[in-house]
Amino acid sequence: MKVKDITRQVNDPKIVFELKYTIKEGGGSLGFYNKNELYYNDKLHNMTVKGINIQYYNNTRYLVLEVK
User: Fold this and answer.
1) Phi, psi of 42 (to 5 degrees)
2) Do 57 and 12 meet the contact criterion of CB atoms below 8 Å apart?
3) Exposure letters 6-35 (e unless 16+ CB within 10 A, then b)
4) 1 in Cβ contact with 48 (< 8 Å)
5) What is the pLDDT of residue 6?
6) What residues contact 66, with CB distance under 8 A and at least 6 apart?
7) What is the pLDDT of residue 26?
8) pLDDT digits over 2-60, tens only?
């Protein structure tokens, strides 16, 4: 599944996406993005998702996507 497949399913504009590499790839974070920022970044938008996690911190919802 690609990042673009997941962003199409999310309708809430307040959700923040965090993209990070899997543990095998080093586990580093690629940053925090909203839906529109991911839509216009082709490199991030076409990455393959290996895992999904949801977090709630400081009244903000985060959708953490582990990518390869």
Assistant:
1) -65, -35
2) no
3) bbeeeeeeeebbbbbbeeeeeeeebeebeb
4) yes
5) 94
6) 20, 21, 22, 49, 50, 51, 52, 53
7) 85
8) 999 999 999 998 999 999 998 888 889 999 999 999 989 999 999 999 999 999 999 99
One-letter amino acid for residue 17 of the chain: F
Structure tokens at 52: 């999904």
9 three-state secondary structure:
helix
Residues in the chain: 68
* Nearest-angstrom CA–CA distance, 3 and 21: 13
Tell me what pLDDT residue 25 has. Answer: 82
Distance CA 68, CA 55 (A): 20
